[in-house]
Amino acid sequence: MIVRAALTGLRQIFSKDFRSLMWRCLGLTIVLLVIAKLGLTFLIDWWIQQLSLANEHSWLASALSITASLGLLFFSFYLLPSISMLVSSFFVDEVAEKIERLNYADEPVGVPMTVGRSLKEGLRFGLLALGVNLVALMLLLLPGINILVFFFANALLLGREYFALAAGRFKDSEASQTMRRDHSMTVNLCGLVLAGFVMVPLLNLFTPLFATAMMVHVHKALHHRDLRNTQA
């Protein structure tokens, strides 16, 4: 089920039906990454000026500036999961509804989240992901360990939160959490797939679209399984 959902979601996000969504999602992801990089660059430059390095030790200021630029490129890798969560809040309902109409035409379509709730969830998920990945970044001096922390922490977080977005179209928060707990192993395994996707350069820019599509299929499969078990 997980492999099928992942392959179906991956194929769909690059299909003709999703092309407009794909470019809009990719564009917003890149814009937010650029804004984050520019903001951090400004703060670092301000910090260097405050230390008066630019005037008294120009070579050191230049070295710090170059190091900071390279560090920001690396840091963007850790920023991506939180940005993905924020981007998803803008597109989750559009992606989910398109998949529901294409693949589950004989079933009711989910109820979209309100704009307020969507932004609130996106910000909450994004800040949570940012905190998790800052912890992983602080473990940078422990090679191997920081990558493991990054991978497994994001697996847990991405699986949990993207499932909540998909299930939230059909259930309230309490029912969504109950369903997630009942299928925790499946949700966590899905998280491993998403964490692996995030670690693939360039492809990871499509994380919001892929994760949403995959989890819509997973939620539907688990919902059908629960119905069969109830009827048995």
What does this structure look like?
The protein is globular. The longest helix is centred in the middle third of the chain and has 46 residues, at 58-103. Helices cover 82% and strands 0% of the residues. The chain is mainly alpha-helical and 232 residues long. It has one domain (2-16, 77-231). It starts with a helix and ends with a helix. It has helices spanning 2-13, 19-50, 53-56, 58-103, 115-138, 145-167, 173-182, 184-198, 207-231. Helix 4 (58-103) crosses helix 5 and helix 6 (145-167) packs across helix 9.
Low-pLDDT segments: none
Cα Rg: 20 Å
Distance between the termini: 20 Å
The counted number of beta strands is 0
Helix content: over 70%
Structural class: mainly alpha
What characteristic shape results from the CA principal axes? globular
Described by strand count, sense and barrel closure, the largest sheet is: none
Approximately what portion of the residues adopt beta-strand conformation? under 5%
- Whole-number total of structural domains: 1
Order of helices and strands: HHHHHHHHH
Task: Give me the number of helical elements.
Answer: 9
pLDDT average, as an integer?
80
Question: Topology, please?
Answer:
Layout: H1 2-13, H2 19-50, H3 53-56, H4 58-103, H5 115-138, H6 145-167, H7 173-182, H8 184-198, H9 207-231
Helix pairs in contact: 1-9, 2-4, 4-5, 4-6, 4-9, 5-6, 6-7, 6-8, 6-9, 8-9
